[in-house]
Amino acid sequence: MHPYAKRHSNPAVFLIYMLRSGSEFLGGTVVVRNTKDAVKRFEELGRDTEDGRFYVHLTLSLPKGMIANRSVWLQISATTLEQFRLDPEATPWVAVRHADSACDHIHIGICLVDFADRLQTVVTTRLKCERVNTYICAMLDLPTPAYFDDVALPRLKRVTPARRMNSAQKKLCAETSSTCFVTCNPKHWRSSIKPWPCVPVDFEPKKR
Length: 208
Prior knowledge:
This protein is an alpha+beta fold. The protein is about 30% helix and about 15% strand. Strands 1-3-5-4-2 form a five-stranded antiparallel beta sheet, with helices on both faces. The radius of gyration is 20 Å and the shape is globular. The relative contact order is 0.14.
């Protein structure tokens, strides 16, 4: 259930992907007739800001083998927004289900300018997403991943989503860096500022 969050300055970037053919519109606070209409509405709701990234795209997945109905997903969506300190009734958002993977998952598109034209601030760091995951897992009575255990020892092994390891080179990089962090970890905090020994990996140059 770990939410993956990404900031955007252009709503078309994620809405076209979310509302692609085969997707199931679940609901939200923005009326959507089609993809073009959704992009237009989100653009009208947004406004220029200092950094421009006032849209957020969240991805939520259930454990393999579990499937939620529409009402449950909408409740999860609203609760997730609340955990990010966003009012699910005053914030423009839409939720869409995709059925093209092994896990039941949804995408939530959010505009950070609410219906009262107030710009909302949101923290989407990895730590914040982990805390939201812990809360949602407890709400759904799902087992919390071991690396969220408050009393567990610090983990040095990298956690890389499988969807990002889409090539042999990326898989090799993830495996090699994990080995370095686990087997060559510093014995004292002072040594952590020095380069850690690691076996170099030669990658083939990209062909253009």
